[in-house]
Fold Xanthine/uracil/vitamin C permease.
Amino acid sequence: MITRISRIFDLYNNGTEIKTEVLAGVTAFLATMYIILVNPAVLSEAGLPFNAVLTATVLVSAFSSILMGLYAKNPIVVAPGMSINYLFAYTVVEVEGVPWDTALGCVFWAGVIFLILTVLDKRKLILEGVPPMLRYGFAGGIGLFIAALGFESAGFVVPLESGVLGWGKISATTLTFLAGFIFTAVLMVRRVRGSLILGIAATALLAWGVEISLGMVTPTLPGGLWSSPDFNLLLQLDLRGSLGLSLWPVIFVFLLSCLFDSLATCVGVCEAGNLIDEEGDPRNLSKSLRANAIGVVVSAILGTSPSTCFVESAAGVQEGGRTGLAAVVTGLLFLPFLFLSPLLSIVPALATAPALVLVGVFMLKPLIYVRWERLDDAIPFFMAMFLMPLTYSITQGIIWGCLSWTVLKAACGKRSQVPLVMWAMALLSLLLLIDLERFIH
């Protein structure tokens, strides 16, 4: 059995072993498991039943991650994504007034078009059309984005009345975060195997100890240990109604949001983790995008917002994950929470904050390749990297990175350096930007 697993995932040639991949898969799960409760909380605001969304979230996360591991052979977790679930719930359903079953139909058609694009892209035009400097920008931006998520979930940085982020001041929470951060960082510097898992566990235990000692709420399971799955959202999408002409912009926004988010995450994680093929390109990118596209279709069928590649996958890669076995392990770990979801309510969000910040450091490794004296390369890189954390949107980083690259190269007489795909992506970025502005306003 062990030999067969090693052969399927080519562990030897990837310089890894089953123990390392399992550890990486567990680490990635701990960094992404919050979606099991957070996604239902978001979508329930749009009228979808909480328990049914939870069941759909678990099933989509398990199926899509396992598919990514078995088919694309990359250690990337796929699950219903944050930000795009807000787009689904608050913008499309609440603001635009689209019924949630029709919105699920829009997700389905977006996934179908996404899948068709990945099947037709036999010459890897999407991959070859993205300049290496923009890929480095995506990787760095995702790193800063992950670190920002960690700092904010720890209360280390907080939104101020002026609307910007500021220091959250010293408190029991921030001291707990700092203790967990230092402990985890020391383990990583000393190259202790499983340092991120140990750091997450230590921070969780410390957080519980602080809560108890300060008389705060003690971790409990008010709803009991067991929770039965709810399949009421299965096949509840409105396929015919979602094809109305007025809903094509909704399908378009879902499509490009899924495509851009997945592209940036796959490229960023592969670049940072040195998961590169013999041509120097991110490994199995076309297959990774195709697996994500299938996950989007399945998301609509099961009854949740679109799945996407998770930036927190970098936590597993940092822990040594190099093959699809890590993604398969993560996917399998989702399945028990069809029944055990109440357990997640006692795990503080603070537990993963130190790990996310340190993974952000890991993701910034591609910055060593930036030639800062070449401003027509450095400026688009900067736009892609810094706008992701500042706008809390991977999509915005891609949009402005692509637009600035294309405009600068064309304006400086270097049109030959702009592949046809970059012209297309710049145009799509403009269209997506216009649609997003219309939805917001």
About this structure: The chain has a mean pLDDT of 83. Strands lie at 78-80, 157-159, 165-167, 307-309. Residues 2-227+247-440 form one domain.
